Amino acid sequence: MDDLPISPAGDGVRLRVKLAPRASRNALGAIAADADGRALLKCSVTAPPADGAANAALVRLLAKSLDLPKSAITITAGQSDRLKTLHLAGAPEELMRRLPPLLGKDRR
Question: May I have one GO cellular component term (predicted)?
Answer without folding.
Answer: cytoplasm
